[in-house]
Amino acid sequence: DAMVIQNPRYQVTQFGKPVTLSCSQTLNHNVMYWYQQKSSQAPKLLFHYYDKDFNNEADTPDNFQSRRPNTSFCFLDIRSPGLGDAAMYLCATSRAGGTNEKLFFGSGTQLSVL
Amino acid sequence: EDQVTQSPEALRLQEGESSSLNCSYTVSGLRGLFWYRQDPGKGPEFLFTLYSAGEEKEKERLKATLTKKESFLHITAPKPEDSATYLCAVGKTTDSWGKFQFGAGTQVVVTP
After folding, report:
1. How far is residue A90's CA from residue B86's CA, in Å, rounded to a whole number?
2. In whole angstroms, what is the distance from residue A4 CA to residue B47 CA?
3. d(CA B63, CA B16)
4. pLDDT tens, residue by residue, A68-99
5. Rg (CA), chain A
6. Does residue A78 contact residue A63 with C-beta atoms inside 8 Å?
């Protein structure tokens, strides 16, 4: 089945130690997103790619960066994780230009910072 | 300031006890309102899209409605498998396609 796959499901890192989360998709969607979701809170958009065009949200900390080397893969890099960065990170995709803007989400990566 | 507010925060239902969840929004120019279901430890799963006031969508025991200021998700005769967090998301006409603001969700627990 076509899907959005995130690895790893659980990631533990140390304070200040760089970490990379990965996302792949077999849907051939041209838009990919990274959301941060803390417990009992709304998912918060960090950035998204429209094809190769990178769109950063104004309030996304500089500590967060992203790469999209090709249509299928997208990475989230956290350069120096702080305790406040512990959260679920959700990758999502959508097909721009379609009749429905619905997002397809992966299962997320739960990040813990020690 | 644009806001998306969901109520209640949590809802506990007996199996078969129908209820409604609310999503109120204050955005200038609604492009669409979306409902998602999120199970614990998983990503949200799309349920419905509503575009204009008066529109209704149904799927099994769920029915979503939209007015100019809010949307309701009605759960009719819920079963334990309907237990999940239900999120609404709003797209604004002034935002780029595919960009949304999510509410914090309503956590629904249905007991047998």
Report:
1. 16
2. 17
3. 15
4. 999 999 999 999 999 999 999 999 999 887 66
5. 13
6. yes
Average pLDDT for B35-43: 93
Chain B closest CA to A39's CA: distance in Å? Answer: 10
**Residue A2: pLDDT over 70:** no
- Nearest residue to A95 (alpha-carbon basis) of A74, A76, A75, A71: A71
Once rounded to an integer, what is the mean pLDDT over residues B34-43?
93
Q: Report pLDDT digits (tens) over B50-98.
A: 999 999 999 999 999 999 999 999 999 999 999 999 999 999 888 877 7
* B68-71 own/partner pairs: CB under 8 Å, 24+ apart: B69/B24, B69/B25, B69/B26, B70/B22, B70/B23, B70/B24, B70/B25, B71/B22, B71/B23, B71/B25, B71/B33, B71/B35
* Distance separating alpha carbons of residues B41 and B105, to the nearest angstrom: 15
B102 and A CB contact within 8 Å: yes
Comparing C-alpha atoms, which of A24, A5, A28, A33 is closest to residue A92?
Answer: A33
CB contact residues (below 8 A), chain A span 65-84, against chain B: none
